[in-house]
Amino acid sequence: MDLKRIIKGSYLAEGFTPEFIEKVASISEIRTFSDGQFIVHEDDMTADLMILAEGLAEIVRITGDTIGYIRPGMPFGEVAFLDRRRRSSSVVAKENCTVIHIPEEPLRSLLRDEPAMAVKALVNLSTVLCDRLRKANQQIAALNAIEEFHI
Length: 151
Known about the structure:
Layout: H1 3-8, H2 18-27, E1 29-33, E2 38-40, E3 49-54, E4 57-60, E5 66-70, E6 75-76, H3 78-83, E7 90-93, E8 97-102, H4 104-113, H5 115-149
Antiparallel strand pairs: 1-8, 2-7, 3-6, 3-8, 4-5, 4-7
C-alpha cells in the first residue's frame, strides 16, 4: 500500500510539499479492521488522525444514530485532533477496512517544525469542518421547516 499516495490524495494534504508528505508517511502506520469492529470510540481521549485507505466506515453516536459514512481517501478524527477533547463520535468498519493511522504527537511535532505546512493543514481541516457545519445548518433548517409546516 502506497502511504504517500493515500496521504497526498486526502484533503488533509492539499498544498503539502512532497517532502512533507514523505515526513507524514514516515510517522504513519497501516492498520486493518474487520467488518463491525470499532476504529475509534466516542468519548475516547485519543486525538490521532486517520485516513480511510480501503473499505467503508460509519460514523455513529453512542445513541446508535448514524451521522455519516467515511469512504476511501477521507481523513477522520480531526475534531479531537484540533480541540484535544474527547472523541465526539465512534467510527465503525462497515466492511473490512484499511486505515492510515497518523499519531497525534509526532504529527504535532512535524507541524511545529514546519509552520507553512501547519497553516495549510489547519486551513484544510477548517474548510472541511466549515462545509460540514453548513450542511448541518441546512439539515436543521429543513427539519425546522417541516416542523413549522405541521404546526
